[in-house]
Amino acid sequence: MTRDQLMKVLEEIVVVVEENKEFFTDLDQAIGDGDHGINLNRGFKAVKEKLSSVRDKDCGTILKTVAMSLISTVGGASGPLYGTAFMKAGAVVAGKEEITVEDSIKIFDEAIQGIIARGKASCGDKTMLDALIPAFEAWKTAFEEGESIEDASQKMLEAAYQGVEYTKTIAANKGRANYLGERSIGHQDPGATSSYFMLKAIVDVMTKGA
Amino acid sequence: MTRDQLMKVLEEIVVVVEENKEFFTDLDQAIGDGDHGINLNRGFKAVKEKLSSVRDKDCGTILKTVAMSLISTVGGASGPLYGTAFMKAGAVVAGKEEITVEDSIKIFDEAIQGIIARGKASCGDKTMLDALIPAFEAWKTAFEEGESIEDASQKMLEAAYQGVEYTKTIAANKGRANYLGERSIGHQDPGATSSYFMLKAIVDVMTKGA
Amino acid sequence: MKKMINHPEAVVEEMLEGVVKAHPQYVRKLEGFNVLVRANGPVNGKVALVSGGGSGHEPSHGGFVGRGMLDGAVAGAVFTSPTPDQVFEAVKAVDGGAGVLLVIKNYTGDIMNFEMAAEMADMENIKVASVVVNDDVAVENSTWTTGRRGIAGTVFIHKIAGAAAEKGMNLDEVKRVAEKTIANVRSMGMSLTPCTVPAAGKPSFELAENEMEVGLGIHGEPGTHRDVIKTADEITAHLVEKILEDMDYSQSEVAVLMNGLGGTPLMELYIMNRKVSSILEERGIKVHKTFVGNFMTSLEMAGASVSILKLDEELKELLDATADTPAFTQL
Amino acid sequence: MKKMINHPEAVVEEMLEGVVKAHPQYVRKLEGFNVLVRANGPVNGKVALVSGGGSGHEPSHGGFVGRGMLDGAVAGAVFTSPTPDQVFEAVKAVDGGAGVLLVIKNYTGDIMNFEMAAEMADMENIKVASVVVNDDVAVENSTWTTGRRGIAGTVFIHKIAGAAAEKGMNLDEVKRVAEKTIANVRSMGMSLTPCTVPAAGKPSFELAENEMEVGLGIHGEPGTHRDVIKTADEITAHLVEKILEDMDYSQSEVAVLMNGLGGTPLMELYIMNRKVSSILEERGIKVHKTFVGNFMTSLEMAGASVSILKLDEELKELLDATADTPAFTQL
Ligand SMILES: Nc1ncnc2c1ncn2[C@@H]1O[C@H](COP(=O)(O)OP(=O)(O)O)[C@@H](O)[C@H]1O
Ligand SMILES: Nc1ncnc2c1ncn2[C@@H]1O[C@H](COP(=O)(O)OP(=O)(O)O)[C@@H](O)[C@H]1O
Ligand SMILES: [Mg+2]
Ligand SMILES: [Mg+2]
Ligand SMILES: [Mg+2]
Ligand SMILES: [Mg+2]
């Protein structure tokens, strides 16, 4: 992925978040406090404004800029979490003009570790991790098994999707939905959903670009 | 009207107020603060409790007891006004066991004067006076013209009813409805309405009794 | 009707019990009457202040019983003036020998009931004076009518006359100060929702999702007119303009009361206050002090009123004086 | 959505402007940040207290900035934890050299954002400690989860730790006192209506005319369960029982906070307080002090929470200490 593609991906995420902001918020109203879409949209609007100023910078700087924007505008739980994820991602590709497949695995891994370190959740807690971790596993495994980027992308997305579906079946242990206890069962997690949409945005741009 | 009939009249008013309390309140919600029925019902429930203790007393004492109950339980505008009316009425027949037609005219007159003195309203202000004053005039005139009690009663009631109807056509100058300005036009006055019902209760008991 | 109550008929008594349980250091209830008086009253030699009216305006009036404000508050049924005997009982209980000032809001019912109480007090040789608050500018053509209503501006009278009494002024002086305050205060309110009198069980009026009621009182009565909901700035500007049209505030210092009607969050009151301040600033009117919150409410009504009091040195000093009551404390 | 606002996205900023206009003697706003600090701060040599969280809980938290309580309050978007840079800015602005205590309510978002701010402060060598309030007993099985929420009981931490700091205690001591207060306070809430986040534009949940939501937080989240509306006494008894089951209050003295969620009239809060008092009395638990009103709200939600704080001599003295803030003044 070139720097330009990275920029396109980020711009696509901005669009996707804007388009789905009501959907995310509705999901969050059901089991949280109804601000997930509002939060992310506020954050990615800020990201969009900042992006133009780093258009010529390396991938690391771009990702860190995204991270800082998110951290200083999103708030809530998703702000520090997505912010940390992008921050860790940026560190992996500091100074680089391009992101290789190997980088992408490292980025994914580090981002997830960052989220875990910050939020202390794990798989099955009904959070974004339930989409991200299976997606990461699928992505990594696909490459280990020598699959094409296209196939790997599809498997990754499918795994993320299943992860979102899985969140419907469990009660939350982390985040606000946790306070609902059993009442959160049956509802999909907003953060897992937004994670899925972001992953999908990446894949969409990369396949369109191909 | 004997003391027993007076007691029956008062008991009938208690019933009529209870039956129409929602109606009075609805009228008051439209142009006032929606408590006229609640106020009067609270007052006449108290009257009912007190009545048994004065069953053997003279008409004056009975009416003053009603007055005191109303004054100390109704509140709002209608409490002092109806209270004053019954107080003045009681003064007219202090010590008497029976109320003559002449007494009734005097009572009616004094009651109205009491209401005017207390509330400083006059005809056309969209208050209870718009029912009471025409009713009084009709009652008095009927006797001056030698009509029977029955006819006089019907004319009195008809005049009160027209008075209530008239309140629909005017804007209020007194009471809470006053603040509505032109918006009060089209609505009948709650106090005029309750006055009409009380007069009707008197007539009903007296004609049943006949 | 969604309310946390037990019996619609018992709300006032139960509320007063709850007040006394919460604030025994400030108030006690007169046995058998819906009257709250200072826990340590009457204060000997001090002019006493009694206010009251229908219930449903909390913290008015019981919340303002305490040092520097009221000596007694009489609670009628919801939105219904208390009866004369209740007011009379309050007068007797608070009189410290220097007489009692009745602070009455201008409603036919309140005036008549308080007047009758004053007549009773007179018969027992208690010195009683009274003032009538009529701060609501919503009602315009009021010459031949009942006159203007008393609404949230009343709280300024409690505060200022209360401070005057605490300072040791005599009954005439306290009355003079109260009347000056009344002459100097104007208010206007609006609402987004009706309210429900517990015993009535249904809302006082109906408003569509995009409508608001403008120029309304504090008893769930409809206002002077209905309008489509505007922005906070537009609504506030309308209220303030009406007030400023009514009295000449130019060059003066003022106190502002940005009052919530019970169901409006503080957030919205502060957003409105932002606009009040900016209009006054533009006009060169200096804000000496601002109060924001629920002072004179209308049950759970969502809405607000603005009150603006023109100050002179005397009023300013009395407004700034210490007060210590359940709902208003000032160091 | 019926609200007196201008733009859903501007509510927090405009509100803060309104607060500063109303209370310049108490607070000022940090330019470019949604942070209120004491007008005359930082106080040299005093431990400073910073709290905050999403907006929509007014008067929390900005209303408690002032002598004897907070030094700074950070306002996030409605119901959304403020970002680390905002908190960090507050920390820098209030530090008087004796360090800063962060009072955090136990929500994932608040904890993470405040933690990140603490890390930033650390890098600039500002001494920062933090405490996490988790007073809500509604959530029961919380061992493996996020733990309990922080709700209205937080106000007691502001008051008591604030008094400790004002008294000159050092950061460790202020933290100790704050933690003792947290350990000693339990709360539980319920609501009759949802609330509407301005930017969302629709209510946080739907409730039928005869339903209430029990055990809910202060962000419009649904509660632990839904029930048919009961009488005020039954509702109150349920809340108090849950609290008393959770901690042993027997023989102790307590402070009670009967908190409204924003849309509930004081009348109903006092009716509920009547029941709180009577249950505590029956159990031989002595009420030292009661606060009734809107302290930690959820926009315009109609509902209430009860908080009960177990006191010892130290907490009692600190609770009784003078405080002077826009929303809480005590002589
Ligand atoms: N500890 C955690 N670890 C990972 N993800 C979390 C954690 N807590 C919450 N989340 C995610 O954050 C989402 C909610 O984000 P958002 O609504 O923006 O914040 P908030 O809960 O503060 O309102 C949840 O749906 C969940 O996926
Ligand atoms: N000054 C007055 N003189 C005569 N009747 C009046 C006056 N003011 C009000 N009323 C009557 O009182 C009625 C309202 O009574 P009620 O609702 O019980 O009292 P309130 O207006 O205090 O709520 C009005 O409908 C009107 O008929
Ligand atoms: Mg959320
Ligand atoms: Mg009425
Ligand atoms: Mg009334
Ligand atoms: Mg949130």
Describe the structure.
The complex is a heterotetramer, with two copies of chain A (210 residues) and two copies of chain C (331 residues). Chain A has 210 residues and is an all-alpha fold. Chain A has one domain: Serine Threonine Protein Phosphatase 5, Tetratricopeptide repeat (Alpha Horseshoe). Chain A has nine helices and no strands. Chain A is globular. Chain C is built from eight helices and 14 strands. In chain C, α7 links the parallel β10 and β11. The mean pLDDT of chain C is 96. The chains are: A mainly alpha (210), C alpha/beta (331). Chains in contact: A-D, B-C, C-D. The interface between A and D is large, with 33 and 40 residues. One magnesium ion sits at the interface of chains C and B.
- Largest interface, C-beta within 8 A: C-D, 66 and 66 residues
Mean pLDDT of chain C: 96
Number of domains of chain A: 1
By CATH, the architecture of chain A is named Alpha Horseshoe
Structural class of chain C: alpha/beta
Percent range for β-strand residues of chain A: under 5%
Strands across the major sheet of chain C, in which order? 1-2-4-3-5-6
Named at the architecture level, the CATH assignment of the largest domain in chain C is: 3-Layer(aba) Sandwich
Query: What would the principal axes of the Cα set say about the shape of chain C?
Result: globular
EC number (chains C, D): 2.7.1.121
Pfam family, one (chains C, D): Dak1
Subunit structure (chains C, D): Homodimer. The dihydroxyacetone kinase complex is composed of a homodimer of DhaM, a homodimer of DhaK and the subunit DhaL.
Keywords (chains C, D): Glycerol metabolism, Kinase, Transferase
